[in-house]
């Protein structure tokens, strides 16, 4: 999110902190493939610089969409703008109560006026095809038992004694709790953004310094790690695992430098072989001046799905759509890929 990096690097402490909050709030929208408007970006900058309050940001966004309503049902920019502002507001609050009510309230505050069911437990069953599961779905909580399951998980966590645990053991147990909480999937939509915000606030109660920017850069990785933690298929040799979530939390809380790549979580992931004619290997060659991990990831994604769009590539590579577009153009200029057909119905050919 280059728009706010200057504030983080050179801004006053208060500006830097606000910029980090906004980067997180906007980055979390990538979980659902959403991108805030330029108007939201400019309004957020005014908040960072202290010209307007977060309440004024929300008011301006509300007024803007009364004048400029979405033209189609597929346009979710308004949702991205409003939810970003609300996340920024809630991250700036020093309040938290560990309870199912708090969890429901976070969802209500985030999606009020956007979803009719904001803050309400869903009354129907759901399935979701997951790229990381090759089109399969996690088995989410049954609508008939959601409230009871939610209350049970909270009660179990509330009674758990963390005293005497090492920092790593504490993180591992929190990871297990968040895994269970997300798997219930209490709401029709917005579960991961709600869970992420709840997790950040919960971690603060342990005294952890949370590197919120990880959610900006790797929000889709966070979601996929929860998917893998809740999926198993013993007939295919696939087991539920928290290993990817723990890699994310290690970076988030302990300043570890774990490599976070969505493709490694795919249930059919195979470590690339080194072949002389492999364009991925060529561009990853340390003596090649074009060596770039983002370009490598893009090529690997295109090898798996040649008609992937920018949003899919951004989600799977773990960066912004703008970054993907820039690297795609560079790959074209370098002669690694070429576009076959139109922008809408064509595909990328690795030359």
From TrEMBL:
One of its GO terms (biological process) is regulation of cell division. GO terms for molecular function: AMPylase activity; ATP binding; DNA-binding transcription factor activity. PROSITE patterns: FIDO (PS51459), HTH_ARSR_2 (PS50987). It catalyses: L-tyrosyl-[protein] + ATP = O-(5'-adenylyl)-L-tyrosyl-[protein] + diphosphate; L-threonyl-[protein] + ATP = 3-O-(5'-adenylyl)-L-threonyl-[protein] + diphosphate. Residues 98-250 form the Fido domain. Signal peptide: none annotated. InterPro entries: ArsR-like_HTH (IPR011991), Fido (IPR003812), Fido-like_dom_sf (IPR036597), HTH_ArsR_DNA-bd_dom (IPR001845), VbhA-like (IPR033788), VbhA_sf (IPR043038), WH-like_DNA-bd_sf (IPR036388), WH_DNA-bd_sf (IPR036390). The keyword Translocase does not apply. Its EC number is 2.7.7.108. Residues 275-351 form the HTH arsR-type domain. Pfam families: Fic (PF02661), HTH_24 (PF13412). This is protein adenylyltransferase.
């Amino acid at each position: 999110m280059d728009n706010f990096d200057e504030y983080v690097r050179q801004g006053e402490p208060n500006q830097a902190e606000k910029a980090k909050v906004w980067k997180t709030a906007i980055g979390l929208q990538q979980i659902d493939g959403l991108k805030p408007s330029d108007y939201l970006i400019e309004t957020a900058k005014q908040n960072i610089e202290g010209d307007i309050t977060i309440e004024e940001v929300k008011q301006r966004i509300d007024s803007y969409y009364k004048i400029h309503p979405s033209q189609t049902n597929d346009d979710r920019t308004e949702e991205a703008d409003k939810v970003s502002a609300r996340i920024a507001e809630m991250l700036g609050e020093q309040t938290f109560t560990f309870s199912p009510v708090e969890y429901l309230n976070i969802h209500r505050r985030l999606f009020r006026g956007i979803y009719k069911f904001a803050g309400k437990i869903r009354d129907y069953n759901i399935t979701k095809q997951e790229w990381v599961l090759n089109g399969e779905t996690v088995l989410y909580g049954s609508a008939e038992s959601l409230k009871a399951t939610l209350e049970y998980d909270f009660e179990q966590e509330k009674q758990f004694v963390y005293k005497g645990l090492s920092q790593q053991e504490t993180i591992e147990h929190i990871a297990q709790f968040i895994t269970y909480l997300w798997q219930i999937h209490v709401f029709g939509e917005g579960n991961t953004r709600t869970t992420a915000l709840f997790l950040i606030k919960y971690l603060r109660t342990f005294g952890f310094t949370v590197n919120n920017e990880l959610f900006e850069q790797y929000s889709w990785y966070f979601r996929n790690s929860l998917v893998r933690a809740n999926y198993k298929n013993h007939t295919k040799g696939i087991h539920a695992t928290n290993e990817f979530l723990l890699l994310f939390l290690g970076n988030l809380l302990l300043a570890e430098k774990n490599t976070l790549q969505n493709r490694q979580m795919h249930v059919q992931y195979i470590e690339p072989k080194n072949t002389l004619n492999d364009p991925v290997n060529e561009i990853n060659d340390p003596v090649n001046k074009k060596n770039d991990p983002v370009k490598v990831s893009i090529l690997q994604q295109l090898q798996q799905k040649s008609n992937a769009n920018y949003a899919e590539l951004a989600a799977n590579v773990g960066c912004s759509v703008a970054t993907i577009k820039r690297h795609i153009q560079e790959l074209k200029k370098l002669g690694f890929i070429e576009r076959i057909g139109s922008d809408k119905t064509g595909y990328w050919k690795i030359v």
